[in-house]
Amino acid sequence: IAATQPSTDWHLKENAREHHTSKFSSEELLVRRGQAFTITFNGAERPEQNLIFIAETGPKPSKATKTLATFDISSTVSKEGWSAVLQSSSSSSVSISISSPHNAVIGRYRLSVQSGSSSPQSLGTFVLLFNPWSSGDDVFMPNTAECEEYVLEEFGIIFAGNKNHISSFGWNFGQFQGDILNICLSIMDRSLYYRQDPITDVSHRHDPRYLGRVLSAMVNANDDQGVVLGNWSGKYEGGKNPTSWTGSGEILQSWKKSGFKPVKYGQCWVFAAVLTTVLRCLGIPTRTITNFSSAHDADGNLRVDEFYDADGNHLERGADSVWNFHVWNESWFTRNDLGPSYSGWQVLDATPQEESGGIYQCGPASRHAIKEGEVELDYDGPFVFAEVNADCMYWNYDSATGKKTLIFSKSTEIGASISTKAVGRDARVDVTRDYKYEEGSAKEREIFKKARKKLGLEDKFDPTAPKQEEVEQKPDISGKFKVAGSLEVGKDLNLLLVLENLQSDAKAVNVNMTAWSTLYTRRRVNQIWKDSLSVTLAPKEEKQFPIKIKYPEYQQQLTTDKTIQVTALCHVEDGIQVLVKRNITLDNPAIDIQVLGEAKVNKEVVVEVAFTNPINEEVKDCVLQVEGSDLLQGILELRIPPLKAREKSSTKFKLIPSEAGPKHLLVNFFCDKFADIKTFKMVNVIN
């Protein structure tokens, strides 16, 4: 006769400690694959009665799809499949150590036990995750400090700005908070792959390569009602401005609460940060990568074409573009499909830019393959290669005649200062050399030609071997914009246009200048300023022309990306045109956080945030938003009274930390004149 329903002791604390899952706040057993966990249950017959265990996952579990395992008690752990080893038994209870294979499907399992010929008894459910601490796992990461950072760390730093002026902001990944794990599991069950064929989809969930690709599609809303809806218009009505988010938790929870409607709005770093949260939660080591001067090569020729009119205005022609920066992900796993040298960091990109296989997904592309120009290897090599390596072509376009004239080309423009957060510290690490050989070196050109050849492009235009219709002439003058003074919202913008005559005879030059506010994608939004000047440069002469754009001139026109593109198109008499341009990112004024006293677990601590209004007019509609995993639940939002010109405000609030260790507090302040002034502070919480 079958015993009554067994009650199960999952040994949650001990198992979590062994499996690096203690940070999750869950009443359910969460363990990593390829590693033993212990459970005790009572109500079973004596183990001599041949206990058989059944572990199953997904909608129609079967042994063929490796979503069903039945195993009995053995004396040793199985190398291949699931196994159970008896730890101890008494007349009323049995302790068993259960092991899963290194390549088990991840997700939520149902576990039951059968004794003799009686029907199976449910023991309950547990969740199985990837195991980067285990050498048999595809995501194995030998360096434990890297495991700590890329799987267990809930705080990240994302780099932004532009290559001349790199800025950064904190992000709360929050992968262990509240209901995030369940939301991540439901993301997998809402993908197009699952909807089309749930049985096959679940059977592929042992493979980080497969899941990385599926999740890169699911984090954007395109095709599949995924998590975040992108918006690069500069207008964000009906949703949140992408620059205002400070963490993934609010986004993932909003998606679930709304009945899985896409959350408005995201831009590249939001997609990358949410994908980091999901992959770290599932146990795949993942980080965000920022690429400066990032190419979006829409037509697959490894070349980006930009068009300008006679006044120097950047024209929205053609689908190619160069972004001040773009953020994607790298995840760490083996590439059994490509071979050992292609294992390690893999590029995934959840920002919906180009379709791959008919839907908006990108990667995984082996970073090693990108560096070596092996663009034919799966997945999306040409697109990722172009992001860091495309050549830039600048054209003058006459809309009346439709004629385009090459102004100049540049092969060293794209893919600068590729950046990620350091392991274990709040600093920037440059990984450009991991993506390409030194810019301008013979090896770098050789790889570029190799990539073009693999794509069948070797006969088409190559900047180093011009054809007749696209001959690049040598300019008579050179020019550049220099920054004079600080680049801060609220202050006048002072620049110098420096023109130099490269020839030994005088040159007459007419210069048309414009300044536009842009998005970080360099999409123009509002014209701020225009001017022109005529000058004759003596032989070999260099001249400087000061330019001042006053704060009131740009204040209304600035986007929340705080970016301005200044161009000067120089028409040289009897010579070719010279284009001078610079993308400028303005800094927000500073905001200061002080923790008053020691931060202790479960004890109140006061935090003070100070901000000084730097401009000569009142700012109003001021809001302070605060978040931080293990420091406070959710997001604290405080309204702050208006601040008169130059007035300082100080706001105090209380925290009750819930866990010891180094934690990060993230603050975002915004008002009618300043968007999203962000900072973060490390708070060391003691027991």
Automatic annotation (TrEMBL):
Gene3D superfamilies: Immunoglobulins, Transglutaminase-like. Belongs to the transglutaminase superfamily. Transglutaminase family. Ca(2+) binds at N389, D391, E439, E444. It comes from Rhodinocichla rosea. The active site is at C268, H326, D349. It holds the Pfam family Transglut_core. Its EC number is 2.3.2.13. This is protein-glutamine gamma-glutamyltransferase. SMART domains: TGc (SM00460). Residues 260-352 form the Transglutaminase-like domain. The keyword Magnesium does not apply. Keywords: Acyltransferase, Calcium, Metal-binding, Transferase. It catalyses: L-glutaminyl-[protein] + L-lysyl-[protein] = [protein]-L-lysyl-N(6)-5-L-glutamyl-[protein] + NH4(+). One of its GO terms (molecular function) is metal ion binding. Its cofactor is Ca(2+). InterPro entries: Ig-like_fold, Ig_E-set, Papain-like_cys_pep_sf, Transglutaminase, Transglutaminase-like, Transglutaminase-like_sf, Transglutaminase_animal, Transglutaminase_AS. The keyword Transferase applies.
